[in-house]
Amino acid sequence: MIWILRRGTTADLRLSAGPRRREGTVCVPETVESLDDVLPAARDLSDLLADHVTDAAERAGTPVSCTKGCGACCRQLVPLLPVEARHLSAVVDDLPEHRRAVVRGRARAVVEALDGAGLLASVRQVGELDSRERRELGASYFELGLSCPFLEDEACSIHADRPLKCRDYLVINDPMHCREPLGGGVVGVALRGHSWAALRELASVFGADEKRVVPLVLAVAEAESWHPAPKAADATAPGQDVLARLLAATVEADRTEHVDEQSGANNHQ
Ligand code: SF4
After folding, report:
1. Beta strands per DSSP E along 97-216
2. Which of 54, 114, 140, 225 has the greatest number of beta carbons closer than 10 A?
3. How is residue 146 annotated by DSSP?
4. What residue ranges line ligand 1, CB within 6 angstroms?
5. Where are the domains of the chain?
6. CA 27 to CA 38: how far, in whole Å?
């Protein structure tokens, strides 16, 4: 059961899996000027949903097997939205100089390897591929065994800032299967909502360009080209509307109770 109480630009969430309960609050500014203002709420939502499904999996006797030190999945092609690319660019900029050089160097090496394998053009266009083409590209990418530039000792070195897709990816299988994901042994856990897709849906408010798909490795290799989002006055939106849309688009409607404190509306969906 997921219970949501929204008060303007703030929402309290309670997620129950049997006796286990997770609680959290997500909020956005009064006036949203770009998706950058929404990303923290999307990440908080994603983490709550991931914790909730982790509780549910454990209760069902099939605990999530993802753990620090297993970075097998960190050789996959990770899709970002431009808002996430900008955030990661800022994260890389904030690294100490030698770390920044190492991370960018790794990313450029991955880009060179992709170029050498004839995959770079497809990777750049991943957002325009159909689902079959994306699957095939994902398999070819993984087969190259290219580590994410943020992977250190098989652990994510930017855990708190990791992309939404990384937050959502949870499995219950033996980790050995994650090293051979095409072998059919990977069993993912279905979250009760996906904030990446919800954020992409919201992106149309701020311009079609915000819906582009940016591969993580390109965002890091070309981090200098990612700048803060333009703050166009005509692209602002009331925070309470944005939060309502984000929640509705993120959290699965079934078994979710929404309460809007301002309107008094209470709808079981
Ligand atoms: S950002 Fe972190 S979690 Fe995501 S692929 Fe890279 S190392 Fe793995």
Report:
1. 151-152, 155-156, 214-215
2. 114
3. P
4. 71, 74, 78, 148, 150-151, 156, 158, 162-163, 166
5. 2-268
6. 8
Burial 58-81 (b: 16+ CB within 10 A, else e): eeeeeebbbeeebbbbbbbbbbbb
Measured CA to CA, the distance from residue 187 to residue 29 in angstroms comes to 38
CA dihedral 189, 192, 195, 199 (to 10 degrees): 130
User: Could you tell me the two tokens for 254?
Assistant: 């079934």
Q: Write out the chain's pLDDT in tens, 269 residues.
A: 888 999 999 999 999 888 889 999 999 999 999 899 999 999 999 999 999 999 999 998 998 988 888 888 899 999 999 999 999 999 999 999 999 999 999 999 999 999 999 999 999 999 999 999 999 999 999 999 999 999 999 999 999 999 999 998 888 888 888 888 777 888 888 877 788 988 998 888 888 888 999 999 999 998 777 766 655 556 788 999 999 999 988 886 545 565 655 544 443 33
Q: Which two tokens stand for residue 28?
A: 């956005």
CA of 155 to the centre of ligand 1 (A): 8
Contacts of 144 (CB under 8 A, 6+ apart): 75, 113, 114, 117, 119
Please tell me the distance from the alpha carbon of residue 47 to that of residue 106, in angstroms, as a whole number.
28
Dist CA 54 CA 131 (whole Å): 27
What is the whole-number distance in angstroms between the Cα of residue 266 and the centre of ligand 1? 38
Measured between alpha carbons, how far is 126 from 214 in angstroms, rounded to an integer?
A: 8
In the numeric block, the tokens 């509780």 are attached to 55
Buried b (16+ CB within 10 A) or exposed e, 221-242: bbbeebeebeeeeebbbebbeb
